[in-house]
Amino acid sequence: MELKKGVFVAKKKNGEIYYRASFNYKGKHISLGSFADEDTAHKAYLEAVMLTNTPSFTIERYTDSNILNFEKWVSVINFRDNGIYFKNPIYLRPKYFEYYIDRDWPYKFDADDLFYYSNHKIMRRGGHLFVADYGMQVNILNRYGIKNYAVKDKDYIFMNGDSYDFRYENIKIVNRYTGVTKILKNGREEYVCKIHINGDYLVGKYKNEEDAAVAYNKAVDALVSNGIKINYTKNYIEALNEKTYKEKYESVKISKKLMNFKCENMKERLFEAKNKKYGNLS
Predict the structure, then answer these.
(1) What's the confidence (pLDDT) of residue 282?
(2) Model pTM greater than 0.70?
(3) Do 1 and 25 share a structural domain?
(4) How far apart are CA 45 and CA 48, in angstroms?
(5) What burial class does residue 181 get, using C-beta atoms within 10 Å of its C-beta: 0-12 exposed, 13-18 middle, 19+ buried?
(6) Phi-psi bin for 127: left (phi > 0), alpha (psi -120 to 50), beta?
């Protein structure tokens, strides 16, 4: 029995039959997905053909009643309008592109990132955007030099207020180094450095962020040498060569409390914290 146009029968490993839909457009064979029955697969084919022939059907016109999934809808429309097919839900605009994780609102990226995101699928979990890269989950903020634990509007800012706009000119990094926070004091910038042990400890206050970043590294070394077994990540300051870094490291001052911090201090504080939480255990 001949199948309807654009439909192909397939079998799962357990022998169960399902139907695949596809069509040819501008010399390219495009898979439209898998479906439980022949009629639905054929409707997907007809819908794709309709999209390519009807410019008035835009991304915004997608509804839950459509047969194609939303990502495929975006891909086909972009191919129709811009002549380039992407498996990922990308729509090209002049000098930038939109990436549709869902149909509510697209994320904007610079054209320079097109190759990367056409080959890396963006996923979202708990408000964080990431891609799978060499088997690892990589936060897309890392591409801007922003740490995973960075806080929006504190460590980095979307200049136009649009947190969906990831174009480079729209993202300003305020705090680029671990433990360093920029503040304004009497109209002047100051960099506060803190390090976490069993709470935040002040390392010091500095005139520039490089000094604060080096101070953080110096505090890490002091704590480790005093027996603190915490896996700290040190700051890498690209702007400093080896000689300049060494000079700053030797001259920068950090809190005497940290220089003399002992493991016993930490044990005593943890014991006190437990007593406050659970009551006197003695």
Answers:
(1) 44
(2) yes
(3) yes
(4) 5
(5) middle
(6) left
